Amino acid sequence: MSMRAGPLARICIVGGGTAGWIAAALIAHHYPQIAVELVESDDIGTIGVGESTIPPFLQLLARLGVSESDFIRDCQASYKLGIEFRDWQRPGTAYFHPFGDLGTPDTTDFYQLWLRARAEGLDLPLQDFAPANVMAQAGRFTLPFAARQTPVGTAAYALHVDAKRVAAFLRRYAEARGVVRTEGLVDDVAVDPGGFVQAIRLRTGEQITADLFLDCTGFRALLAGKALGGGYRDWSHWLLCDRAVAVQTANAGPPPPFTLAQAQPAGWRWRIPLQHRTGNGHVFSSAHMSDDEATALLLAQVEGEPVTAPVTVPFRTGVREAPWQGNVVAIGLAQGFIEPLESTAIHLVYRAVDYLFRFLPARDCAAELAGEFNRRMIADYEEIRDFVVLHYCLTERRDTPFWTACATMELPDSLARRIALFRVNGTVPDGTDELFRAVSWQAVISGMGVTPRGWHPAMDRAAAPTLAPDLTRAAATLARFVDTLPTHARFIADHVRAPAP
Which stretches are transmembrane (predicted)? Predict the structure, then answer.
């Protein structure tokens, strides 16, 4: 009988932070029969470059049975209805990537209807019909699921969170369910001739064995990269930014219910408002701007007084060739990284654990299961890569070398095909289990000023004489309803106000 026969009994998570503790919490909740040990060191800080999530994050909380309101209070979170992109098409322009749907619930493809209405004289931008955008621009908020039968019922939302508080919250959750935390630095990794990790040795001399290891050691990738020598697909020729400088500031006013992503001469800056502070950052290309220039530019634009010193983080965009090798599964930054433009980092952690559960192995860690996990995980990274590159490649800017390079780069074939198809009549191909639905592609492409040559022929059945007036009235109805909602700040104060820090 194989030495590795039988079901998983022990999992060791190497590294904490958001990735490690999400994995620990989910395993402890779903597989209480598996012993879980998490090894991390207080000497190693967490990166936490992004503090913004997307709607599937709320599914994670629900899956854990966590009270969303309690989580928001504990993590000093605020609500997020989408992302506002300023100056991306060209300086002075802005568009919004909303969460949720466009139009009303009974509209099968609102974007196509909007294209047809424009030919009949409609002069309203697409985002006037996105409930999340109209709420965001008015600084107002309500829970869409609690207003399902209203004009904002098709909106969705996510959260702005304090990443360190998220990790602490999930640590408490996991430890209450039996996860054992061990303080220590990894000094060595013992690998057998078959490519399986036998044990990790800590600087204290302690050895820790397990059937399966999760590498959550960030960009260092101590197991998947350093010990196993796994390869890495570098996508820096498509995504030119390779550094980020981050600083926290005091809130300069009520937190708006959206993330700001504002284009800069060699990248872009983020603004993520929490209840008690604001996260700010500048993602940039070191080939086009120095650290000092990037930091000075960020500090000149932040709206509140800095409460932390600026921290610069280098990164390499891409994904590991085999996120799962032998009995090691890389998760989080050890697995790959797409710059935080669309707030996908935490989602990719959740996704990796979800795939691990789908293909959960026995102690032998069958190569067939690892292969399917890798195929699905890499496909997710490629989808997100293409969607993020989309924001850059459609720019009309030629005012700096960085933006000229973005506008003239050779695109991934998969993205080039999507854009070409869209330019015909607005068609967005359906993928398998994709994160970004047609509404997201439509929002970004139309926001960047691209209009298809035509529309789908099915729209020719629309009642042309009344189409534009009907949509104009629908937009007005939506705007009037939003004006009746509480402000974002009032909604937080009434329902989820966090204790003073």
Answer: 12-31
